[in-house]
């Protein structure tokens, strides 16, 4: 049983957003969530009730971050790996997450399923306002690791963006928003996968420090939009000469602010 396997493995319970939610994660193996998941969650900037699907949710970090920041959000965590889904299930059972667990569901399914198989798995057409994703973004030949759980989370197979974005296009409502975080070298593949499904693509490069090359990109796009692609001003993670995060990045990382699309009204900073 997947749960029995996870019981035999060391794990940690980690606080995020200054303790507004906690996450059970594997220790010493597999993928451990951090800033990537928090920045991804910050791309959902809403005040209305919304339905959000977190594709490839892992232990549930990004989806739980959305639920913790947005009290009217209903979140579906979608994860293929039984072991990582078991960690997400444990996270939802934590007493520290009781205030938000009723708004979060877990679905064990392959996000690349198509047609009737996808519908049967529990991913309906035209249902979600937001889809967020942090796909495996290493080439399968890069950074080989003996840790099978980590390899599954980090290494892509050909056409991965196409499969994941195709599913996002199917399950989003018209006008719904796709949000993802990836490496800069994936831009061309992401834009190609969006194709005619999505428009209004906005790309923000994330740089460790001013003058250093980007290490991540934040991408949002709107289902059915015909607006042109836009490159936004970059986000710089650290203040010059320090390891301290810039004020905005620190707010995004800790759930005190959202990173809305251009022209949207920024959410006020929340007190921790």
* CATH level 1 class label of the domain at 2-186: Alpha Beta
Mean pLDDT: 88
CATH superfamily of the domain at 2-186: Vaccinia Virus protein VP39
State the separation between the terminal residues, measured CA to CA. 39 Å
- Poorly predicted runs of 5 or more residues: 1-7
Radius of gyration over all CA atoms, rounded: 18 Å
What order do the helices and strands come in, and which of them pair?
Blueprint: H1 2-7, E1 11-16, E2 21-26, H2 35-42, E3 50-55, H3 61-69, E4 73-79, H4 82-93, H5 98-101, E5 104-108, H6 115-121, E6 128-133, E7 138-139, H7 148-154, E8 155-156, H8 160-171, E9 172-182, H9 187-194, E10 198-207, E11 216-223, E12 230-231, E13 235-236, H10 247-253
Parallel strand pairs: 3-4, 3-6, 4-5, 6-9, 7-8, 10-12, 10-13
Antiparallel strand pairs: 1-2, 9-11, 10-11
InterPro entries: DNA_methylase_N6_adenine_CS, SAM-dependent_MTases_sf, Small_mtfrase_dom, tRNA_Adenine-N(6)_MTase
Keywords: Methyltransferase, S-adenosyl-L-methionine, Transferase
Domain Methyltransferase small: 39-184
Task: Note down, in words, how this protein is organized.
The chain is of the alpha/beta class. It has a domain at 2-186: Vaccinia Virus protein VP39 (Rossmann fold, 3-Layer(aba) Sandwich). The chain is 29% helix and 27% strand. Strands 3, 4, 5, 6, 9, 10, 11, 12 and 13 form a 9-stranded mixed β-sheet that branches. A hairpin with an 8-residue loop joins strand 10 (198-207) and strand 11 (216-223). The longest helix has 12 residues, at 82-93. It is globular and about 45 Å long. Mean pLDDT is 88; it is low at 1-7.
